Amino acid sequence: MSTAKLSKLNKKQPVNAYEVIRRRIVSLEYAPGISLDEKSLVDELGLSRTPVREALIRLAGEGLIELEKNKGAKVSELNLQTLQTIFEAGDLIERAYTRLACLRRTDDDLASINEARLEFERDLNNQDVAAMVHSNTEFHLRIAAASGNKYFLESYRRILADHERIAQIWYSDIFRSDDRSANQKICRQHDELYQAIEQGDTDRAEAISIAHAHACKEGIRSSLSSGESLIADLNVQTEEY
Amino acid sequence: MSTAKLSKLNKKQPVNAYEVIRRRIVSLEYAPGISLDEKSLVDELGLSRTPVREALIRLAGEGLIELEKNKGAKVSELNLQTLQTIFEAGDLIERAYTRLACLRRTDDDLASINEARLEFERDLNNQDVAAMVHSNTEFHLRIAAASGNKYFLESYRRILADHERIAQIWYSDIFRSDDRSANQKICRQHDELYQAIEQGDTDRAEAISIAHAHACKEGIRSSLSSGESLIADLNVQTEEY
DNA sequence: TTGATTTAAATTGTATACATCAAGTATATT
DNA sequence: AATATACTTGATGTATACAATTTAAATCAA
């Protein structure tokens, strides 16, 4: 290995405690329910307790971890009830901001949405699950942002935070079972949704949004009921869903 | 003054930076838009920077302040667009969790809701605006909690955080103009809403919820258009609303 | 005077030391 | 042996010292 390469690798780029911990939670590297003690995180990240603590407080604000006074942090649970409530609230809020986005989106909004849509397609072709989770989130968040209502945006961001952990499982299973139709369906719906918003067709956008959520729900359901899935991560009984 | 009393007063009770700063923002003591530098807060609260910084991070998570890297914190703005988006998102989410609360509320939920309802009546009789703001928030949050959907709960908590600052103005104006009918209306709607939830009457609960939100909207509108109001705090033009 | 550049002050970000709290272990007493 | 108390240990909460960044002030040149 050349020294140049080495120095580049050794060059300590600023580690963002929040980003790193968040990614590990979303990617299920930190399983739901496990406790996160500051010392371990400090040792792993090579930072002091201050930025780690501040990251934990931010993450608690997002609902990804739970803090208990004098008792540290634990990764938020993810169970079947979580799934049901995600879809219950998600369906409603998604429809609301999607309709508003049709009415209020600017050209910049459209460009931003389309950028995320294309990024998702690239990530899917690269079979990069973590990147897909992120770009899918971005795609939907940018539509929510185009609604012009920050409360819908933030509400949906909260929902997507938990949804990301589920999507991680689902996408993994899609590639594991090599389900090309599932991939195509997601991309097609993203494309149709983008076009409907571009054309300001509120009813069509809402209908696509509902269909997209439904497909997502079905995909996750089959993913959970397939024996090969990472269902253990959810520590749930699929029968109840 | 007896020494016993003095020692009691002097006994430094633990100051919670988060609670104190939040209260000051909600009560508009810290006006929307002003910058909050750590040093001032540390001097005022008599705490070190650590708990103050952690409080600011929490408050930023709630949307009450905005943090910019290396540039400190400022209290979130509150303008007419905020008002419109609050009601836009609030109407929808309120109706959703109210219906769910009718279907899912436990006896404990009912007791909890009623407790907050009575607390609000007491605070109103005491003409304690800050306490009213708090107990009104509690009343609605406990209904949201009874929905059994944490995303609706947290979404509405976010909306109420900003709503509290507006309610502060509105309630103040109610007492300033000595509008007894407005007070009675709020309490009556709270009572009717509670009863509808108790009886599991989803349609009626939703209808009352809509009427309550409408009355709230109208009250704030008249409060803003009255010259005596604390409208300056909102730095807005009422004509646009 | 105006403008840009440098320098100094103030503010925020990070690291670490100290204080407090919780839980587990050991010892003593019944 | 069982329970209770005290102690030890580990972790979290707070305070403070140090580093890096931003803002302003001051100096100099045009």
Structure notes:
- Two copies of one chain form a homodimer.
- Chain A contains ten helices and three strands.
- By secondary structure, the first copy, chain A, is mostly helical.
- Chain A has a three-stranded antiparallel β-sheet with strand order 1-3-2.
- The longest helix of chain A has 27 residues, at 150-176.
- Chain A is globular, with a radius of gyration of 19 Å.
- Chain A starts with a helix and ends in a 16-residue tail after the last helix.
- Mean pLDDT of chain A is 90; it is low at 1-11 and 229-241.
- At the A-B interface, helix 4, helix 5 and helix 8 of A face helix 4, helix 5 and helix 8 of B.
- Chain A binds a DNA duplex (30 and 30 nucleotides) through residues 37-39, 47-51, 53-54, 69-72.
Largest sheet of chain A: 3 strands, antiparallel
Give the overall shape of chain A.
globular
The number of helical elements of chain A comes to 10
The residue fraction in helices of chain A comes out at: over 70%
Uncertain runs of chain A are 1-11, 229-241
Count every beta strand of chain A, where a strand is a DSSP E run of 2 or more residues: 3
Oligomer: homodimer
Q: How many distinct folded domains of chain A?
A: 2
Mean pLDDT of chain A: 90
Do you know the CATH architecture of the largest domain in chain A?
A: Up-down Bundle
CATH-defined fold name of the largest domain in chain A: Four Helix Bundle (Hemerythrin (Met), subunit A)
Q: What value does the Rg of chain A take, in angstroms?
A: 19 Å
Q: For the record, what is the CATH homologous superfamily label of the largest domain in chain A?
A: GntR ligand-binding domain-like
Highest-level CATH class of the largest domain in chain A: Mainly Alpha
Strand content of chain A: under 5%
Main sheet of chain A: which strands, in order across?
Answer: 1-3-2
Question: Pairing-aware structural class of the strands and helices of chain A?
Answer: mainly alpha
Largest interface: A-B, 27 and 27 residues
Task: Give the CA-CA distance, first to last residue of chain A.
Answer: 52 Å
SSE series of chain A: HHEHHEEHHHHHH
